[in-house]
Amino acid sequence: MKPSAKTWIIPLIALILIILPLLSACGNDGGSSSPEPTTSEPPRKVKITIGNHTDLTGVSAVPMQEVNMGVTDIVRYYNENDLIPGVEVELVEYDGQSDPSKDKPGYEWLKAKGADVIMVWIPSLGITLRAPADADRFPVFAANARKETLYPPGYLFSTSPLMDDEGWNLVKWIVANDWDWQTKGPAKIGGAAWDSNGLDPGFEKIKMHAESNPDQVEWVGSYIIPQGAFQWEVAVDALRDCDYVIPDNFWSFVRSYREGGGKAKLLGTDTHSSFAQIDDMRLWPKIDGMLIIWQSEWWTDEGELPDLVNRLMNEYHSAA
Description:
There is one protein chain. Residues 1-32 have low confidence and may be disordered. The chain has helices at 6-24, 61-80, 103-112, 123-136, 147-150, 163-177, 181-184, 200-212, 233-239, 250-259, 276-280, 304-316; strands spanning 46-54, 87-95, 117-120, 140-142, 156-158, 187-194, 217-225, 244-246, 265-268, 291-292. 42% of the residues lie in helices and 17% in strands. The N and C termini lie close together (8 Å). The longest helix is centred in the N-terminal third of the chain and has 20 residues, at 61-80. By secondary structure, it is an alpha/beta fold. It folds into two domains: 6-19 and 45-160 and 307-314, 3-Layer(aba) Sandwich (Rossmann fold); 163-292, Rossmann fold, CATH 3.40.50.2300. The strands form two sheets. It has a five-stranded parallel sheet with strand order 2-1-3-4-5. Strand 4, helix 5 (147-150) and strand 5 (156-158) form a beta-alpha-beta unit. The chain contains twelve helices and ten strands. Helix 1 packs across helix 2 and helix 6 (163-177) packs across helix 8.
């Protein structure tokens, strides 16, 4: 199965945001008006090292496979095509295993390996690394950051829309386009998530909309369990009669919810970008009809980004 557009957009945006400011620091200092002597030797390339603080062997390793592949491929693409003249991009990975105790050690390890910037994917990493990043004046780019970690501005940057905005826009769209609340009454919506995956700001926005518009939406509740846990029984019981449910841990929650009698339409965001395990576990019928709010085109659409995705898939992974 091909990766989704999500696999590529964050690395691509991150690279652009990371590299262009650094390149501006490599320009002529204007200190001399004398021309440089001509030389036949090609100029030495400036090397920029990106640290990928990821999960290779932990509980998020399977969905992160596509993300890591996308980062590796986009670095290769930039280097092979010399898209930034005079610059060579290097990638170094750290296996944080989605283990909070490895957040700060991974940050320090990547810096020690020469990283000029660090990319993180698990929302809790942004919370952990904001303070050391500010203290070190070291840029960290987060694929999923909480609003409170970004303000006041510092050295943590977000490469994706905030979950607050996605939750608000998702519920507004549902009310306007998918649920006939005037006939059926308010849509019952709830959510279930790990405590580390950053969906709760979206839950809060949906709850806020429900409180302001009780005739349109009823917020049933959010059920948060520790990262790595798979005990969804309480959430399944509470959300069984919902019209819409936002799941977090796709493969275990969806199966438990459907087996427990839950019939709600599922809602998703960019967080739900990896379908490999849904494919492996043959759960596609369980998520049929799911609505997903997305920040880019799908990989089967036409456009600059999906065209690049399919081009690189064909060039780098034609045998996959």
